């Protein structure tokens, strides 16, 4: 294995057998080294292979500017997120999360902590991701001996959500807002409080995440199963009435028309979450 590029004393890039560039990390790995020289493989601590070329280039650019421990922190958080969620995350999180944590620590040291306007919603709607954010604060504390405020757990959770949905950060705020708006329609229509620890509530939130994502990307469910929709309309009349309220709200505020298929799934989830079966 030979050095392709020296990024800093601790980070290099190499080419694998397929001539794909890999980022290799290890303390002192590139100290007084030049491209073309062999790699001391005993010093390798981490190897990253990013498939997306743009992400890979941004990642290398970031590593020129950010100390190695921030990449280690980010990597540990991402591994924890993957274990907890059981999902693949968009590669861009290696850039966005590392950059965010580095900047957050710099701000904190200057007494410039930022309040997270969505903290309450994130705690309620994205419990797993917020727990990952809280764990991330512990990792940062252990590695850097810096205690960041709880607001940062919310910001880190947003980066995880972003990587799950493959969305840009501004859209995550919009998606979260829509979820809360739909929940409010259901809550006031049925005059209930949700059992936020129930599996059906979790399923409903998950459905609403992707419903909102479809809405902002202007994607639609097809209208193939009209028979099933008519059956559901007869069986769950109150839930259908609530769904129609949601459809009317979404149409007026966001100019997004719910298809019968969309209404079908929404109605089923509403029926489940309301009746807590």
Main traits of this protein?
277 residues, alpha+beta, Transcription Regulation, Sacy, Chain A, PTS-regulatory domain, PRD, four-stranded antiparallel beta sheet, 4 strands, 63% helix
What are the SSEs and their pairings?
Elements: E1 5-8, E2 11-15, E3 21-25, E4 46-48, H1 53-65, H2 68-85, H3 93-109, H4 119-125, H5 127-144, H6 150-165, H7 169-190, H8 199-217, H9 226-235, H10 237-254, H11 260-275
Helix pairs in contact: 1-3, 2-3, 2-5, 3-6, 5-6, 6-7, 7-8, 7-10, 8-11, 9-11, 10-11
Largest sheet: 4 strands, antiparallel
The helix content, as a percent range, equals 55-70%
Question: What general outline do the C-alpha atoms trace?
Answer: elongated
Provide the gyration radius in Å: 23 Å
CATH class of the largest domain, please? Mainly Alpha
Total number of strands? 4
Total number of domains: 3
Report what the structure shows.
The protein has 277 residues and is α+β, with helices and mostly antiparallel strands. The chain has 3 domains: 1-49, CAT RNA-binding domain (Transcription Regulation, Sacy, Chain A, Roll); 51-166, PRD domain (PTS-regulatory domain, PRD, Orthogonal Bundle), CATH 1.10.1790.10; 178-275, PTS-regulatory domain, PRD (Orthogonal Bundle), CATH 1.10.1790. 63% of the residues lie in helices and 6% in strands. Strands 1-2-3-4 form a 4-stranded antiparallel beta sheet, covered by helices on one side. The chain is elongated.
């Amino acid at each position: 294995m030979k050095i392709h590029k020296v990024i800093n004393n601790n980070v290099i890039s190499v080419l694998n057998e397929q001539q794909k560039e890999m980022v290799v990390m290890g303390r002192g790995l590139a100290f007084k080294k030049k491209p073309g020289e062999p790699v001391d493989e005993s010093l390798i601590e981490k190897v990253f292979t990013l498939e997306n070329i743009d992400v890979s280039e941004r990642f290398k650019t970031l590593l020129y500017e950010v100390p190695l421990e921030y990449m280690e922190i980010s990597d540990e958080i991402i591994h924890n997120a993957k274990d907890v969620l059981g999902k693949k995350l968009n590669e861009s999180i290696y850039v966005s999360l590392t950059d965010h944590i580095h900047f957050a620590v710099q701000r904190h040291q200057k007494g410039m902590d930022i309040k997270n306007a969505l903290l309450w919603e994130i705690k309620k709607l994205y419990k797993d991701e917020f727990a990952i954010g809280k764990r991330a604060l512990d990792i940062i504390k252990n590695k850097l001996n810096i205690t960041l405020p709880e607001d940062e757990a919310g910001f880190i959770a947003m980066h995880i959500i972003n990587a799950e949905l493959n969305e840009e950060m501004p859209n995550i705020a919009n998606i979260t807002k829509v979820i809360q708006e739909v929940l409010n329609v259901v809550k006031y229509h049925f005059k209930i409080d949700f059992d936020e620890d129930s599996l059906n509530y979790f399923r409903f939130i998950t459905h609403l995440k992707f419903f909102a994502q479809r809405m902002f990307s202007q994607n639609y469910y097809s209208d193939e199963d009209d028979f099933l929709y008519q059956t559901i309309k007869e069986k769950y009349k109150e839930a259908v009435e609530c769904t129609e309220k949601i459809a009317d709200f979404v149409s007026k505020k966001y100019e997004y028309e719910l298809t019968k298929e969309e209404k079908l799934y929404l109605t089923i989830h509403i029926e489940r979450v309301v009746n807590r079966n």
